[in-house]
Amino acid sequence: MLTMAKKKESGSADDDAKPISYRPSADVGAAMRKYRDQFKAKPTKSAVIERALREFFRAEGIDIELEDPESD
């Protein structure tokens, strides 16, 4: 025989509701502005690759000197 499932008793959905003026995008923007210097200081892909190459060759005991492609 089938029985109906009982509705779970829980707190009101309004208990956890954010105020209407809450905007998550504004919070993200504020966090980005707060840490702007850190975001600007991210290394470029070429810098990450260069560092990885230096560490690899240093571990192998080989000294390398990478050329700066912008110095041409």
UniProtKB/TrEMBL annotation:
- Ranges annotated as biased composition (Basic and acidic residues): 1-18
Q: Where is this region: Disordered?
A: 1-23
Specify the protein name.
Uncharacterized protein
Lineage in the entry? Bacteria, Pseudomonadati, Planctomycetota, Planctomycetia, Gemmatales
